C-alpha cells in the first residue's frame, strides 16, 4: 500500500522566483509521492529570468501563475518551507504541528542578473532533493 503523498508548501514573498523553482523541482523529483504548491505574501508575475533558468534544466514554468497564500492549503500541509530571507523579508508564522523549514535564500532577482538566479536555482535544487530524501520520498 502506498503511503499518502507528503503535502509541501513553498513560500516566499512574491512567488515569482524562489518558491516557484522549489515547487517545480519538488514536483519533478517527488512525482506522485508529493502534493506541492507554492505561494507568496504579495504575488507578482513569474519573472522572465525564472522561466529562463528553469528552461535551461528542461523544466517549463511558462504555464505557472503566481499565487497568494491559501490558508486552507497552508494548514493542511505536512511541511512548509520558507525561502525568504528572515532578516530582510516578512515570512509567515507556521502553526504548531506542521514541520517548518527555513532556507533563508536571498532574492536573486534583486540583482537582476541571470547568474544569481542560476545560483539560486542550483542551491534550491540541492535543498529540494535533501528535503525529499529526509521525508523518505522516493526520488
Automatic annotation (TrEMBL):
<feature type="domain" description="Phosphotyrosine protein phosphatase I">
    <location>
        <begin position="6"/>
        <end position="134"/>
    </location>
</feature>
<dbReference type="InterPro" id="IPR036196">
    <property type="entry name" value="Ptyr_pPase_sf"/>
</dbReference>
<protein>
    <submittedName>
        <fullName>Arsenate reductase ArsC</fullName>
    </submittedName>
</protein>
<keyword id="KW-0059">Arsenical resistance</keyword>
<dbReference type="Pfam" id="PF01451">
    <property type="entry name" value="LMWPc"/>
</dbReference>
<dbReference type="InterPro" id="IPR023485">
    <property type="entry name" value="Ptyr_pPase"/>
</dbReference>
Amino acid at each position: 500500500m502506498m503511503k499518502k503523498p507528503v503535502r509541501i508548501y513553498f513560500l516566499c514573498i512574491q512567488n515569482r522566483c524562489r518558491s516557484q523553482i522549489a515547487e517545480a523541482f519538488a514536483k519533478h523529483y517527488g512525482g506522485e509521492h508529493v502534493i506541492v504548491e507554492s505561494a507568496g505574501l504579495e504575488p507578482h508575475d513569474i519573472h522572465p529570468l525564472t522561466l529562463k533558468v528553469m528552461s535551461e534544466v528542461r523544466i517549463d514554468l511558462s504555464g505557472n501563475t503566481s499565487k497568494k497564500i491559501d490558508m486552507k492549503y497552508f494548514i493542511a500541509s505536512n511541511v512548509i518551507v520558507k525561502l525568504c530571507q528572515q532578516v530582510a523579508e516578512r515570512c509567515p508564522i507556521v502553526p504548531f504541528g506542521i514541520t517548518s523549514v527555513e532556507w533563508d535564500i536571498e532574492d536573486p532577482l534583486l540583482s537582476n542578473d541571470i547568474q544569481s538566479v542560476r545560483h539560486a536555482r542550483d542551491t534550491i535544487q540541492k535543498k529540494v532533493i535533501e528535503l525529499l530524501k529526509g521525508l523518505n520520498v522516493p526520488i
